[in-house]
Write a structure and sequence with these properties.
The protein is an alpha+beta fold. It has three helices and three strands. Strands 1-3-2 form a three-stranded antiparallel sheet. The protein is globular, with a radius of gyration of 13 Å.
Length: 67
């Protein structure tokens, strides 16, 4: 489970329902990721997006400045 904005959840479930599904906490931002059905590269992108969604803005900015 990762936490994403509701619009992102809807897009993921619509484009890849085998890899993503809604759950009881989806209205609070949680989306289930079915690891069997997702490629590692895409999973990494989803996890990074989820982290950016909840991480403090200063921390995200410091990571972006390192790149």
């Amino acid at each position: 489970v990762v936490k994403l904005p509701l619009a992102d959840q809807a897009a993921l479930v619509q484009t890849d329902p085998d890899a993503f599904s809604l759950n009881a906490w989806s209205h609070q931002g949680a989306i289930t990721v079915h690891l069997k059905h997702i490629q590692l590269a895409r999973f990494r992108k989803v996890v990074e997006a989820a982290w950016r969604h909840v991480a403090p803005k200063k921390l995200v900015a410091s990571i972006d400045n390192e790149s």
